[in-house]
Write a structure and sequence with these properties.
InterPro entries: Ribosomal_bL35, Ribosomal_bL35-like, Ribosomal_bL35_sf. The protein is about 30% helix and about 15% strand. The chain is of the alpha+beta class. The radius of gyration is 15 Å and the shape is elongated.
């Protein structure tokens, strides 16, 4: 049986050449004027997920 890719997850994460999992930081849509500049700058960066999540992600995205 051919495994299907979980499209919602594949749109939200990026897997680098070395196998790191990157995702965008949450909460960047609106209500950003009330947060401090430090928090706003942090939200622009991507976050590296813990390698412990890799087995679950491999199950949802079989092409890894």
């Amino acid at each position: 049986m051919k495994l299907k890719t979980h499209k919602a997850l594949s749109k939200r994460i990026k897997i680098t050449k070395n196998g790191k999992i990157l995702k965008r930081r949450a909460g960047q849509d609106h209500f950003n004027s009330r947060s401090s500049g430090k928090i706003t700058r942090k939200k622009r960066r991507d976050v590296t997920l813990d390698p412990a999540h890799l087995p679950a992600i491999k199950q949802l995205i079989p092409r890894i």
